[in-house]
Write a structure and sequence with these properties.
alpha/beta, Cobalt-precorrin-4 Transmethylase, domain 1, Methyltransferase, Cobalt-precorrin-4 Transmethylase, Domain 2, Rossmann fold, five-stranded parallel β-sheet, five-stranded mixed β-sheet, 33% helix
């Protein structure tokens, strides 16, 4: 029977490692959660999907390193349901595939706590696929067996059917068995498993940290030791391993194995992170700035209300567009109420954000910098009757440069400011990215604005040795140089796709 005033617990599979392999329902629940209980194998990037108000509790368990015993985790979930309405228990892979999810579900049922299971993609399938190994193939294998060599330490005897596994046809997949790899393989061979059958081990499968070795059953333990592979890993035994060289697609991506730091705001990081991850990069989101309302909210609101009376609306950033229209639709119901103003945008990113509202730009420079926007008015202004005595509303950030304002005023335009937002240093690090950057290093750190540079430097995190610096454009580059840093990679057209392309081209060379 359900207890009164008790929330619901969702046992959510986090998948094998790549955040993009999380189910839509799983991500939706993380975004709605007011309590998130997560494992060591759940990708830290998923924590950023939760709200700032969500309580996050780490209960990770790795070999001989348990943050919390299982019984305490069970008790924690029951207790969390009495304090929160939506509790997400985020588990690596699938909750019911060697994940002890069934034990947690039993504990919740016994306590009268409602629960739901959201399956995840198991590393038993995804791990081999990301290493180019199909678990089945009509030419050689029509079945597969999944087992774990990591059993309950309290068992008086093993329930692992070594003889049955050795005799089984098709592919054999072992999870959580790296500490017993040699013993397990020897036991399988003693039970009749052919030692010359192809075998592979894949560590950190479906992440940019993935490493794999292929050998035979008899030689795999030595190959793993020589390569220095450890847990977490998936072991595959069977003729399908022979397809690894032919079907390996993941390690051939241009940024595979490269760790790239994204310093954009948490809300904006998604676009850059997704494009980098699609090229195989290990993306580490380390937001250095946060977007907050402007100091004078009344002036901002008044400027938005008055916007229909201007001849031009001039937008200096995608953030300015987003914040402007959040306020606009709080007052007006129809985009047509914006009036007949012409639109200017500092660059393609800003123009793309305006297009979401059905607005095309009349003026946009090829280079996304304020000076070029003013120069574009000089080049094309006559097409629109010039700028003298023309009313303009300039939408920008509180700490933005005043180049647009000063130069257009010099040209006798009547310019009013609309300060739509402010940037402040990010103070939260829910994914532990700072510690990870310090401990593990990175191959590239990306900077997409002057504020990301200034706030990163204020954090006083040492830039790892041999780490490359990527800049989105000349203004950001100039700020980097103020701190004595010279970028190795610079975007040509000063937008996210161009920055990603520049990083990929750098490593191709």
């Amino acid at each position: 029977m359900k207890k009164s005033n008790v929330g619901k617990v969702y046992l959510v599979g986090a998948g094998p490692g790549d955040p993009a392999l999380m189910t839509l329902k799983g991500r939706m629940l993380i975004e709605q959660a007011d309590c998130l209980v997560y494992d060591a194998l759940a990708n830290p990037a998923m924590l950023a999907w939760a709200t700032a108000a969500c309580k996050k509790i780490y209960v990770g368990k790795r070999a001989n390193q348990h943050a919390m015993p299982q019984q305490k985790i069970n008790d924690l979930l029951v207790q969390a349901a009495t304090e929160h309405q939506c509790v997400v228990r985020l588990k690596g892979g699938d909750p019911y595939v060697f994940g002890r999810g069934a034990e947690e579900a039993e504990a919740l049922h016994a306590a009268g706590v409602p629960f739901e299971v959201v399956p995840g993609i198991s590393s038993a399938i995804a791990g081999p696929a990301y290493a180019g190994i199909p678990v089945t193939h009509r030419a050689c294998c029509t079945q597969f067996t999944v087992f774990t060599a990591h059993e309950d330490a309290n068992k008086t005897e093993s329930t692992l059917d070594i003889a049955g596994i050795a005799a089984a046809k098709g592919t054999k997949i072992m999870l959580m068995g790296m500490s017993r790899l040699r013993r397990t393989l020897e036991a399988l061979m003693a039970a009749g498993q052919g030692g010359d059958v192809p075998a592979a081990a894949i560590q950190w499968a479906a992440t940019a940290r993935q490493r794999s070795v292929t050998s035979s059953v008899a030689g795999l333990a030595d190959a793993v030791e020589a390569a220095g592979l450890g847990a977490p890993a998936v072991v595959v035994i069977g003729d399908v391993v022979a397809y690894a060289d032919t079907l390996d697609w993941y390690s051939r991506l241009p940024l595979f194995g490269k760790r790239v730091v994204v310093t954009r705001t948490r809300e904006q990081a998604g676009e850059l992170s997704a494009e980098l991850a699609a090229l195989g990069a290990d993306v580490m989101e380390l937001p250095t700035i946060r977007i907050v309302p402007p100091t004078d909210r009344k002036d901002f609101a008044a400027a938005v209300v008055d916007c229909p009376r201007y001849d031009w609306l001039v937008f200096s950033s995608p953030n300015g567009v987003r914040k402007f229209f959040e306020a606009f639709y709080a007052v007006y119901e129809d985009i047509r109420e914006i009036g007949g103003a012409r639109i200017a945008a500092v660059g393609p990113g800003t123009a793309a954000e305006l297009k979401k509202h059905g607005l095309m730009v009349d003026i946009m420079p090829q280079k996304a910098v304020a000076e070029e926007l003013v120069a574009e008015f000089d080049r094309k202004g006559d097409e629109f009757g010039g700028v003298a005595n023309v009313t303009m509303l300039w939408v920008h950030s509180e700490k933005g440069r005043d180049v647009v304002y000063k130069e257009l005023m010099k040209r006798q335009a009547i310019v009013d400011e609309c300060i739509a937002y402010n940037t402040v240093p990010e103070t939260e690090d829910p994914t532990g990215a700072c510690a990870r950057l310090t401990d593990e290093g990175a191959d590239v750190i990306t900077f997409t604005s002057s504020s990301t540079v200034k706030n990163f430097m204020a954090m006083q995190i040492p830039i790892p040795q041999n780490c490359k610096i990527a800049s989105i454009g000349p203004v950001t580059t100039a700020t980097l140089r103020e701190f004595g840093l010279e970028p190795h990679i610079v975007s040509t057209t000063h937008n996210i796709p161009s920055l990603v392309q520049a990083i990929a081209d750098y490593f191709r060379k």
